[in-house]
Structures are given as C-alpha cells and as structure tokens.
Amino acid sequence: MLKTLYLKNFTVFADARLEFCSGLNVIVGQNGTGKTQLLKAAYLMNRTWPDLMYKPLALNKNRAEAYFEKRLQGLFQPVKLDNLIRRGKADEAQLTAEVEAFIPTLRITTAAEDQANAAQFAQFPFGSVTESLHWSISLKRTQEVSLLNTNAELTASRIPDSAAVNACVPKSLFIPSKEIVSLYEGLIALLDRYEIKLDATYGDLARSMSGPELSSVPALATGVLGELEDELGGKLVLDGGRLSFVAKDGSQTEGPLMAEGFRKLTTLLLLIRRGVISEKGETLFWDEPEANLNPAYIRWAANALVALAHMGIQVIVATHSLFLLRELEILTMDSRFSSVTRKYFALAGSDEGVVVSAGGDIADIEPLVLLDESLLQSDRYMEANERDGERGWFSVDYALADGSRAGAITR
User: Fold this and answer.
1) pLDDT per residue over 315-337, tens digit each?
2) Which of 264, 279, 300, 363 gets the highest tally of CB atoms within 10 A of its CB?
3) What are phi and psi of 258, to 5 degrees?
4) What is the pLDDT of residue 98?
C-alpha cells in the first residue's frame, strides 16, 4: 500500500508531497496539471518491491536502477529520460516514496483471547506486522549519451535493501483512461516481440487479465459489485484469447463491438472475478474512470470504487468529472460506507510548477476547477436565457454534499 509520494522537479511538479490514505484517494485537476503523470509515478513506486523480489535475487542498487530506468521508459514513453526533468527549470529530478509492506505472520490464539485484538489482527491480509519500504531515485542531466538514447543519469539513492526478504506488498493494478478490450487480442504477443508506442500500463493490465478463472467466486464479486454485473446484464469472458460479453440469455457480443464505456466497467468486473483484485491491502489506480461513461454508468463506477475501498482495497483515482466527484461524496455519507477513509488532492498550475493541495473533504482543497467551471457555465446559461426569453430554464444545483460553494439555476 502506498503511503507517501514526493516529486521534486519531476515532469510538471516542482515540489509536491502527497500522503495517501488506505481507502479512497481522489486526484482532481484540469488538463495539463499532471494527474496521469502523478498516478503513474505512484503506480511505479508501489510496484517496485514485488517486481524486484519476484525472483530470488538480492536487492541492490544496480538491480534497482536498471528496473527504474526500464519502467520509467515504459510508463512515461519519453524519447529521452531527461525529458522527465521539469523543463527549463532544473537539472535534477527526484522521486521518493514510502510503501507499507506486510510480514507473513502465524498467530496462535486461545478461546479466552480478547476478541477485539483478534479483529484488529484480521484486518491485515498477511498478519499484523508491517514494515515501511523507502525508495528514492534521482534523474540528473548529463552530457554523456548512452546506448539507451538518454542524457540523464539515474541513481537509486535509497532502497530498502535491509528490509525483511519475506515482506509482501500486495498487488497493484492500473486501469488507463482508454479501454483495453478492443486491443486485447494478440496485444501481449506484440508487446513481447516489438516496441509499440503504448505505455506499459496497457501491457500490465493485459497480462493481469490473462490469468485463469478462479474455482470459486471471490468475496469482492458480491454485494455492490455483484449488483453492477446484474445491472450490466452479463459478464466479460475471455475465451481463446478473445474477450467477449456474454449476456444472461446466452447471447454473445465481441469485445470490439461493445460500447467503449461498457467495456471499461466489464473489465473491472472481469479483474475482480479472476482474483486480480481480491485482497485487502491491494491498490487500484484508475485514470479517469468516467471517460466515455454516461451518467448512469458513472454512478455504477462510483459505487464500485467506494465498495472496493470499503472492502480494504486502496483506491487512487484521477478525474475531472464533477458528477463522479459528487457521487463519491454521496456514497461516502451512506452509513454502509462510513468506515471508508478519504483523501482529496487538487492540482493547479502555477509559474512555480503544479501545486498540490490536500484534505479529507472536498471543501478543504483549492482550487476545485471542475466546480468553478460548472458554476461559470451556469452563469453563461442564465445570461443566454436572459437574451432569449422564449427558452425555459431547467433546475441545476451545483452545491456540494456539505452545502458549500452552492450555485443553481432555477426555472
């Protein structure tokens, strides 16, 4: 689970520190403020330990630096690594993160043991013992050009090489803004053989989707998420390397023929049913979940995100949809989800780089550009109706759930 992330002179960020909660984390900001870049940087740091420890090899600086160089190239697709350093403002960039790992622990209890302590122990997927893993890498401009076509030197200045070798960081999954169902067939083979200008999140996701079906339905596939599958009227099925949607009546629709927004929701459910997202402590990154979804499906996406956070999945999403933001607020006020922790981050451009504000409530972050633009739109609509009295007005309320920053159009 990702706890903190620090970006210094990395892409559009001059000096940004973020502390994530274990539940629902929402990143908002207008285009060009680095939401996707922030999401990818967080995903990179959260995946590093399980990727490097997958093979029984000692963790050292050389292995870490080779991994980070390859992954930065794959995730961000820069022509040269030094392009990731804030342009014209600095000669060195830094990425630092703290990731929480779990230590597999065996605990023997007696019938007389305090049940409260037992419940506290049960909230962790691998035991109650945790360990913080600290990572820090820097990119420094240099005049030397390597075979990898870069004039930046990457240094892993801090790695958790003294951490317990059995420390476990639960899985991370990144769902990009563009759907992958229509691209899936043959994609993994192409990525393994050729250099395709498609960032690494697509390959990661495709490989995650290719696993076998579970013998039993995961607990996550019940409740709100089960209701979503019922609402969609079927499920996404992988058969013979091709994804298709099978309706309840048995009819089948090929993946590329499905509506794009529909593909995104069914992809999430496929990942849950295959156990890709299944355990407490795992992290889901989702870039613009609202993209190409109509309002009804955005509501279901919001339901799924809050339900996952309620079940112990760390959720980190980037959005500029006011509708999605308000749905998340409405749901977290529901008594069913009262235990879900929340953190909001607003990104805003400035002459000194992108500035990040954070808070546990929407009202705590500034600027909230998506709300400001909605209020300005309401003003423009009212002015237009004043010029054209024949058109009727419709009622639109832009107040947030707590009543702050209200704006409305009334008939």
Assistant:
1) 999 998 888 988 998 998 888 88
2) 264
3) -80, 155
4) 97
Give the 3-state secondary structure of residue 14.
strand
Are 346 and 206 within one domain?
A: no
Q: Which two tokens stand for residue 10?
A: 């990395």
In tens, the pLDDT along 53-77 reads 988 788 999 999 999 999 999 999 9
Contact 27, 366 (CB under 8 A): no
Q: Which two tokens stand for residue 206?
A: 């495709």
* Number of domains, the chain: 3
Amino acid at 17: R
Are both 319 and 257 inside the same structural domain? Answer: no
Q: Which amino acid is at 35?
A: K
Residues of the chain with pLDDT under 50: 120-121, 393-394, 396, 398-399, 401, 406, 408-411
Q: pTM here? A: 0.85
Residues 6 or more apart whose Cβ sits within 8 Å of residue 279: 125, 170, 171, 312
Q: Do 218 and 289 fall within a single domain?
A: no
pLDDT of residue 124: 52
| Cis, peptide link before residue 367, omega less than 30° from 0 | yes
**Of 223, 270, 275, which Cα lies nearest the Cα of 246?**
270
Q: Are residues 398 and 255 in the same domain?
A: no
DSSP secondary structure string for all residues of 265-314: HHHHHHHHHTTSS-STT-EEEEE-TTTT--HHHHHHHHHHHHHHHHTT-E
Residue in this structure with the two tokens 């099925």, named with its chain if needed: 237
